[in-house]
User: Fold this.
Amino acid sequence: MIETNIFFSALSNDVRLRCLMLLVEEEELCVCEFTHALGLAQPAVSRHLALLREAGIVLDRREGLWIHYRLHPDMPQWALEVLQVTAQGIVGLSPFQDDLKVLEDMPNRPGAPRCA
Assistant:
Protein backbone atom coordinates (compact mmCIF):
# COMPACT_ATOMS: atom_id res chain seq x y z
CA MET A 1 0.00 0.00 0.00
CA ILE A 2 1.35 3.39 -0.98
CA GLU A 3 1.35 6.02 1.73
CA THR A 4 -0.15 9.26 0.46
CA ASN A 5 2.60 11.50 1.81
CA ILE A 6 5.34 9.29 0.33
CA PHE A 7 3.56 9.19 -3.04
CA PHE A 8 3.25 12.97 -3.32
CA SER A 9 6.75 13.49 -1.96
CA ALA A 10 8.05 11.26 -4.77
CA LEU A 11 6.16 13.33 -7.34
CA SER A 12 7.56 16.58 -5.95
CA ASN A 13 11.03 15.80 -7.32
CA ASP A 14 11.42 16.79 -10.97
CA VAL A 15 13.57 13.79 -11.97
CA ARG A 16 11.16 11.29 -10.41
CA LEU A 17 8.16 13.06 -11.94
CA ARG A 18 9.83 12.98 -15.37
CA CYS A 19 10.55 9.25 -14.95
CA LEU A 20 6.95 8.57 -14.01
CA MET A 21 5.59 10.59 -16.92
CA LEU A 22 7.80 8.57 -19.28
CA LEU A 23 6.42 5.36 -17.77
CA VAL A 24 2.82 6.52 -18.16
CA GLU A 25 3.52 6.95 -21.88
CA GLU A 26 5.89 4.04 -22.52
CA GLU A 27 4.72 1.44 -19.95
CA GLU A 28 8.19 -0.05 -19.41
CA LEU A 29 11.67 1.37 -19.84
CA CYS A 30 15.23 0.22 -19.29
CA VAL A 31 17.49 2.36 -17.10
CA CYS A 32 19.51 3.20 -20.22
CA GLU A 33 16.38 4.67 -21.81
CA PHE A 34 15.78 6.89 -18.78
CA THR A 35 19.39 8.10 -18.78
CA HIS A 36 19.22 8.89 -22.49
CA ALA A 37 15.85 10.66 -22.32
CA LEU A 38 16.68 12.70 -19.23
CA GLY A 39 20.32 13.39 -20.10
CA LEU A 40 21.43 12.30 -16.63
CA ALA A 41 24.08 9.91 -15.36
CA GLN A 42 23.04 6.33 -14.68
CA PRO A 43 23.77 6.44 -10.91
CA ALA A 44 21.52 9.48 -10.45
CA VAL A 45 18.68 7.93 -12.44
CA SER A 46 19.04 4.59 -10.65
CA ARG A 47 18.92 6.32 -7.26
CA HIS A 48 15.62 8.03 -8.16
CA LEU A 49 14.16 4.83 -9.57
CA ALA A 50 15.14 2.97 -6.40
CA LEU A 51 13.25 5.53 -4.32
CA LEU A 52 10.19 5.06 -6.53
CA ARG A 53 10.51 1.28 -6.14
CA GLU A 54 10.84 1.53 -2.35
CA ALA A 55 7.73 3.73 -2.28
CA GLY A 56 5.79 1.03 -4.15
CA ILE A 57 5.19 3.23 -7.20
CA VAL A 58 7.27 1.26 -9.70
CA LEU A 59 8.30 -2.34 -10.09
CA ASP A 60 11.54 -3.53 -11.63
CA ARG A 61 12.61 -6.65 -13.44
CA ARG A 62 16.03 -7.79 -14.47
CA GLU A 63 16.79 -8.99 -17.97
CA GLY A 64 20.43 -10.03 -18.09
CA LEU A 65 22.43 -6.95 -17.14
CA TRP A 66 19.53 -4.59 -17.74
CA ILE A 67 16.90 -3.43 -15.29
CA HIS A 68 13.51 -2.41 -16.61
CA TYR A 69 10.93 -0.39 -14.70
CA ARG A 70 7.17 -0.10 -15.00
CA LEU A 71 4.38 1.34 -12.89
CA HIS A 72 3.55 -1.02 -10.04
CA PRO A 73 0.54 -3.12 -11.10
CA ASP A 74 -0.81 -3.09 -7.52
CA MET A 75 -0.71 0.70 -7.25
CA PRO A 76 -3.97 2.02 -5.81
CA GLN A 77 -6.40 3.32 -8.42
CA TRP A 78 -6.31 6.84 -6.96
CA ALA A 79 -2.52 7.00 -7.40
CA LEU A 80 -2.70 5.71 -10.98
CA GLU A 81 -5.37 8.30 -11.77
CA VAL A 82 -3.15 11.07 -10.34
CA LEU A 83 -0.36 9.99 -12.69
CA GLN A 84 -2.67 9.71 -15.70
CA VAL A 85 -4.29 13.12 -15.10
CA THR A 86 -0.84 14.65 -14.60
CA ALA A 87 0.34 13.14 -17.88
CA GLN A 88 -2.70 14.58 -19.65
CA GLY A 89 -2.04 17.99 -18.11
CA ILE A 90 1.61 18.20 -19.16
CA VAL A 91 1.15 17.15 -22.80
CA GLY A 92 3.31 19.38 -24.95
CA LEU A 93 5.11 21.00 -22.02
CA SER A 94 8.85 21.08 -21.50
CA PRO A 95 10.73 19.12 -20.23
CA PHE A 96 8.21 16.28 -20.53
CA GLN A 97 7.63 16.59 -24.27
CA ASP A 98 11.38 16.98 -24.78
CA ASP A 99 12.03 13.76 -22.84
CA LEU A 100 9.63 11.83 -25.06
CA LYS A 101 11.19 13.24 -28.23
CA VAL A 102 14.73 12.40 -27.10
CA LEU A 103 13.59 8.89 -26.17
CA GLU A 104 11.84 8.46 -29.51
CA ASP A 105 15.06 9.41 -31.31
CA MET A 106 17.27 7.12 -29.19
CA PRO A 107 19.42 4.87 -31.37
CA ASN A 108 19.61 1.18 -30.46
CA ARG A 109 16.69 1.26 -28.03
CA PRO A 110 16.22 -1.88 -25.98
CA GLY A 111 14.29 -4.62 -27.52
CA ALA A 112 17.63 -5.19 -29.11
CA PRO A 113 19.88 -7.51 -27.08
CA ARG A 114 21.85 -4.66 -25.50
CA CYS A 115 21.37 -1.01 -24.61
CA ALA A 116 23.73 1.44 -26.27
Observations:
- The mean pLDDT is 92.
- Residues 47 and 78 are 25 Å apart (CA to CA).
- Residues 14-26 form the longest helix (13 residues).
- The two ends are 35 Å apart (CA to CA).
